[in-house]
Amino acid sequence: MKQQGETGGRTRNGWEALARERIDRSSFVPPYYQLAQIIERHVRSGDFGPGDMLPPEAELARMFGISRMTVRKSIEKLAQLGLVTASQGRGTFVNQPPLEHATFSLREFAEDMQARGLRPSCRLLEAKVMRAPAEVASKLNLDPGRRVLFVRRLLYADDEPMVYDRKYLRYDRGQPILEAELEYMNLPAVMARHSDVLPSDSRFVVRVARCSHEEAALLGVEPDSPAFQVEQFVHSADGSLVGWGILVYRGDRYYFTSLPRLLR
After folding, report:
1. Fewest C-beta atoms under 10 Å: which of 56, 61, 136, 244?
2. DSSP 24-49
3. φ/ψ (deg, to 5) at 76
4. Nearest-angstrom CA–CA distance, 219 and 213
5. Residue 214: its pLDDT value, please?
6. Residues 30, 198: contact at Cβ < 8 Å?
7. What is the pLDDT of residues 146-202, one digit of tens each?
8. For position 198, what pLDDT does the model report?
């Protein structure tokens, strides 16, 4: 049975860990989403455990210099994922992460490589605004001929290609596309700049496949080499599909773990 002292000490440590975090005011990612990511990360790292209480809304607002309404929006996002339960008059408490909300930690490529002692990098192969192909328009529920942002990238670890990434994203605002943002920004940041909707979460379908000649050439493996083919569906907060793509992971270099995580 969990001891009260253990729970209280961990909660205190979690509060202290949160107090050292900061919201990036220069980021395209809204503050509420950044705060949700921060809290989720500390829950996953064990700073908070099941049953532990998060700081009150007023305290989180003070810590991060944001409004209570912004904090409340962050808590709502975490509650949607099943990571916390908000009880009026009592506070917000951490749940045991439910398996039905698990998503593969594919957005953690850079952190994953760094944790293995490898240096992550990205090479942009292609980026263009184009008319959505019929299949893509159907998946994203767009009118025929609607513009989308198409991106192809290679993700590296210590200069060795690991993942071939192809995505179609909603493109609404018409700002010029900058190579730097496609190489270094995370997905929510890119879409916040170029779309009227912000991605909230992803669903992944993982299949075992063999590399095509094109994929093999880019990944530096033999044609027909085993790979993980990952179909990604990117959803906004209202559940609509705002992005779709295919990622090919080298089968000889990569494995997956399944964790409940916000999209990064």
Report:
1. 56
2. -TT-SS-HHHHHHHHHHHHHHTTSS-
3. -60, -40
4. 10
5. 95
6. yes
7. 888 898 999 999 999 999 999 998 876 655 555 555 655 455 566 666 565 666 667
8. 61
Answer whether CATH 1.10.10.10 is correct for domain 4-99. yes
Pairing of strands 241-250, 160-170: antiparallel
pLDDT band of 4, cuts 50, 70, 90:
very low
196-223 burial, b at 16+ Cβ within 10 Å, e below that, comes to ebbbbbbeeebeebebeeebbebbebee
Amino acid (1-letter code) at residue 118? L
Instruction: Choose among 94, 95, 18: nearest CA to 61.
Output: 18
Supply angle C-alpha 116, 245, 204, rounded to 5. Answer: 60
145 or 84, which is more confident? 84
CA distance 204 to 201: 10
Break the chain into its structural domains and give their ranges: 4-99, 103-259
Q: Tell me, which fold does domain 103-259 have in CATH?
A: Chorismate lyase (3.40.1410)
